[in-house]
Every structure is written in C-alpha cells, then in structure tokens.
C-alpha cells in the first residue's frame, strides 16, 4: 500500500519550549533504584478529569531532551505531560556496552525495570490528580518509540492511542491488540530502516482491520487508514532521516485529541 510522502507543511502553529513551561521534577524508588521524571501539571488537574501524555526520549537522550523535542504543554496545555528518564541500557543498534540512557527493548529485558517504572508513575499520577483513564497516550522517538510499542504490548489496556516515531517492533506484533496508531517515519532513516518501519506499519494496518489510505482530515501531508473497528492508522512519512522532525508534535497532539479509550 502506497504511503503519501509529506513535508510537514502545516498551518498549525508549532511552539517552542523557549517559553517558560513549568516542569516539576519528581522521583520514585523502583526496586531500590531512584527513577526520575519531569512533569507538566495543568492548573486544573486536581479538580477535573485530565488527559495524560507520556513522551519518551531516544537512546542516549534524557528527560530534558524529551521536553524540548515534544513541547506538548505548549500545544495542549490542558494535558498532563510526563517525560520519564531512562537508565543506562545496552542498545541494539548503537551503544552495545550500555553507556547511555535508554529503555528496555523487550518484554522481560532488564528485569522489566522500565515497565515497573511506568506502573509506579501512573499509579502516583492517579493518586495525586484527576487522571482521565479514557485519555492516556504514549509517544516517543527511536528507542522511545520502541518503548511506546512495548507499552502497547504490555500495558495496552491503559492507552487510548499511540504515536511512535522512527521505531520498529516486529517481535511485539503478536502481542498487540487493536488501537489507534500514528507512526512517523523518515524514508531515508539509516538507523531504523524505513523498510523495517513499513513492515511494522503494515502489520498494524492488518491488525486494526484498516482500509486503503486517504488524506487525513483533508491534509495530503498524512495518510489516514480508516478502520472497520474504530482503530484507524495515520502515517506521517517524510523524506528525512532518523532525526525527529520538529513539526511532529503538532501532528501527534492533533491525533491524540481525536481518540479516547472506550471503557467496558
């Protein structure tokens, strides 16, 4: 199936985190290890149901990088946003000695330390704020995008929609349940090969029982694959490389706002 090429020429304004967005540092002890995150908390998060977005840095990145890459509070100030910090982790494609921070690559890897971290963070958010359980989302770039797929496989019932960038997770496809997906990819990605990402996208299109692609909301920059079961796939394919595209956050927020989880 052909994916429309786009150049991210959006009319939606993209904001910079040069604006002073208040991010709160917070710590958790998970299996005796101190874990950290930066959190943006809307003013009314304690008073009314609030959507939550998790945004994950790539391998070698950190929570501050993630906050700059994903300026979601500027685009969606009503959402509570969490930028979790990874630990030094051996990389599959780079850094085999694990000298840089990242996320576990598979179920059971690294003692599931990052899944446990996620569980601890979400539990504390639910205790401290009025989390809207029907509007919890995950996004991330590269290793962070891979971890978003891992969360889908391991904690899929939690999320309303997912939006990984520059990631492929063929080993997890059999563990995914249908869910709305936006996938962002560069056609010339030298690290996470475009053909790997295409294979992942096509597997989710089949899983989600999607039809042929059309322009998304009349925007020819993205391809929308309607789903018979209400779990569409939107692809945002640009001609670049592995670098996270600066306009991607606006697309991600637009997509997340369109989806909420149905509660039985």
Write up this protein.
The protein has 264 residues and is an alpha/beta fold. The protein is 24% helix and 26% strand. The strands form 2 sheets. A 10-stranded mixed β-sheet has the order 1-2-4-3-7-8-9-12-11-10, sandwiched between helices. Strands 5-6 form a two-stranded antiparallel sheet. A hairpin with a 7-residue loop joins β11 (219-225) and β12. The longest helix has 16 residues, at 113-128. Residues 1-18 have low confidence and may be disordered.
Please write out the topology.
Blueprint: E1 24-30, E2 33-40, E3 50-56, H1 63-69, H2 72-75, E4 80-84, E5 87-88, E6 101-102, H3 113-128, E7 131-141, H4 143-155, E8 161-165, E9 181-186, H5 194-207, E10 214-216, E11 219-225, E12 233-238, H6 248-257
Parallel strand pairs: 3-4, 3-7, 7-8, 8-9, 9-12
Antiparallel strand pairs: 1-2, 2-4, 5-6, 10-11, 11-12
- Helical content stands at 10-25%
Approximate strand percentage: 25-35%
From the N-terminal CA to the C-terminal CA, the straight-line distance is 33 Å
**Separate helix tally:** 6
Q: Which descriptor suits the 3D outline?
A: globular
Catalogue the unreliable spans. 1-18
Instruction: Count the beta strands.
Output: 12
Largest sheet: 10 strands, mixed
Give the SSE order as H and E letters: EEEHHEEEHEHEEHEEEH
Mean of residue pLDDT values: 91
What's the alpha carbon Rg, rounded to whole Å?
17 Å
Quick structural gist:
The chain has 264 residues and is an alpha/beta fold. It is 24% helix and 26% strand. A 10-stranded mixed β-sheet has the order 1-2-4-3-7-8-9-12-11-10, with helices on both faces. Strands 5-6 form a two-stranded antiparallel ribbon.
